[in-house]
């Protein structure tokens, strides 16, 4: 059973009011709202730092486009339990993260 509205803290009331406003929005309003927030976040440079962090998370001995990742992907094909779907997912992930020369 949920708590009565009179027993909610001010923070909980504020969160509830925001949630109700979001639930009452149409699909078009929701998309516009989130697109505006995302655009503002990009303009503020919020995502720039994440890109820089991802660049530095690669192993120090891994060079982009090196045959090490390709050799690894070819080597694990012979492991039982790793099928073509899993191989495709791993290959796509390696390309997406920049481990393979795209």
Helical content band:
55-70%
Global morphology: elongated
Strand content: under 5%
Distance between the termini: 54 Å
Tally the helices: what do you get?
Answer: 5
Largest sheet: none
Q: Secondary-structure element sequence? A: HHHHH
Mean pLDDT: 79
Unreliable segments (pLDDT under 50, ≥5 consecutive)?
none
Number of separate strands: 0
Structural class call reads: mainly alpha
Rg of Cα set: 23 Å
Explain what this protein looks like in three dimensions:
- The chain has helices at residues 10-24, 27-43, 48-56, 67-75, 84-97.
- It is mainly α and 102 residues long.
In short:
63% of the residues lie in helices and 0% in strands. With 102 residues, the protein is mainly α.
Entry keywords:
elongated; 102 residues; mainly alpha
Write the layout of secondary structure elements.
Elements: H1 10-24, H2 27-43, H3 48-56, H4 67-75, H5 84-97
């Amino acid at each position: 059973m949920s708590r009565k509205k009179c027993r909610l803290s001010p923070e909980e009331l504020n969160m509830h009011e925001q949630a109700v406003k979001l639930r009452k929005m149409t699909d078009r309003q929701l998309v516009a709202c989130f697109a505006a927030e995302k655009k503002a976040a990009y303009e503020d440079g919020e995502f720039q730092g994440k890109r820089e962090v991802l660049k530095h998370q690669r192993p120090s001995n891994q060079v982009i486009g090196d045959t090490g990742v390709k050799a690894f992907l070819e080597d694990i094909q012979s492991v039982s339990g790793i099928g073509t779907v899993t191989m495709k997912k791993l290959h796509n992930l390696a390309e997406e993260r920049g481990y393979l020369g795209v």
